[in-house]
Amino acid sequence: MIRSLIATTALIAVAAPALAQELNLYSSRHYDTDERLYSDFEEATGITINRIDGNADELIERMSAEGENSPADVLLTVDASRVQRAEDAGILQTIESDVLNEAIPANLRDDQGMWYGFSQRARMVFYAEDRVENPPATYADLADPAYEGMICIRSSTNTYNQTLLASIIENEGEEAARAWAEGVVANMARDPQGGDTDQLRGLVSGECDIAVSNSYYFARALRQDVDGLSGDVDSIAWVFPNQETTGTHVNISAGGVAAHAPNRENAIAFLEYLASESAQEYFANGNDEFPVVESVETGEYAASMGEFTADDVDLAAVALNIPLAQQIFNEVGWE
Ligand code: FE
User: How many Å lie between the centroid of ligand 1 and the Cα of residue 287?
Assistant: First the structure.
């Protein structure tokens, strides 16, 4: 009896590797809170996730260089423009999924099924409450000479700013976008430096009166101790820009199935999982972003910043304006 049991076990051990299910995930998400998201998927499906982290441009380059031999199954980015660049580079493939089409609003996904947005982040205006009496109400206001020398915003090499300017091109046209970028440069408190959190820190240090940042960096400072920020977070007030006009610019963290995905079915299963209610809790709320699935409630800290109307412009159309946005940034000397 014991002998046959051992024999059976041995057989299973030999057979197991052939059945091993894998998913090779190329990710530019940089948030610790995602760990639970991945482990839950692995436990529920038995699929092992092999993660390769890097910035989106590096990952796109790597997938392009690997070509048909690329082991990549899924590419995740933190910005619409980069996932669109991946589509343009031919490294994503079309999938058809009723689950994804039903869960994700049409303006937050590619119409050919090459990529899908899984969380939203608002690009917001923050200000030092005791130093700014009339805060900007719109993105256009950031270019108003009334705010000369007051604004901190990161460099134009940053995708969040590129996509914001690309959305202004889409909504207002090229000339208005160029004038806006010029005006913001004239209003900068300092040369662009650091990430979004550093712009917020500038409000505390007094170097900046107004700062532009994605919503979740501020929500994070409400949730946990962020050095140089959380201690004085009460001195900072915020605005969701463009509430009377286009709505606040939102960007997405997005993903798509790799063109040569060796584990295509697992890749689709993974994307569908990301649109599930439980995954949205981690993917969106874990990083204090706004879920894309309507039935999922916004997490405590993001919700505490208040409700807002988001710009519902088609992000795929916005992403096509990125090269022009970069050109404008260069022309106006936005470092
Ligand atoms: Fe970020």
Answer: 9
Residue 18 in any domain: the answer is: yes
Which residue in the block uniquely carries the two structure tokens 């412009």?
A: 313
- Quote the domain boundaries for residue 216: 122-248+315-332
Residue 275, domain member (yes or no): yes
Q: What is the pLDDT of residues 220-229, one digit of tens each?
A: 999 999 999 9
pTM of the full predicted structure? Answer: 0.89
Distance 78 CA to ligand 1 centre (A): 7
CA 218 / ligand 1 centre spacing (Å): 11
Ligand 1 centre from 53 Cα, in Å? 14
295 located within any domain: yes
Count of structural domains within the chain: 2
Both 116 and 127 in a single domain? Answer: no
Q: Identify whether residues 21 and 32 lie together within a single domain.
A: yes
Residues in Cβ contact with 54 at an 8 Å cutoff, skipping those fewer than 6 apart = 26, 27, 28, 62
**What does the angle CA 92 – CA 97 – CA 100 come to, to the nearest 5 degrees?**
90
Distance from the alpha carbon of residue 54 to the mean position of ligand 1, in angstroms: 13
Cα of 150 vs centre of ligand 1, distance in Å, is 23
Average pLDDT over residues 190-200: 98
11-21 residue pLDDT tens: 444 444 445 79
Q: In this predicted structure, what is the pLDDT of residue 19?
A: 58
Mean pLDDT, the chain, rounded, equals 93
Alpha-carbon span 237 to 132, nearest angstrom: 10
147 C-alpha vs ligand 1 centroid, how far in Å? Answer: 26
Distance (Å) from CA 77 to ligand 1 centroid: 10
**Residues 120, 250 contacting (CB under 8 angstroms):** yes
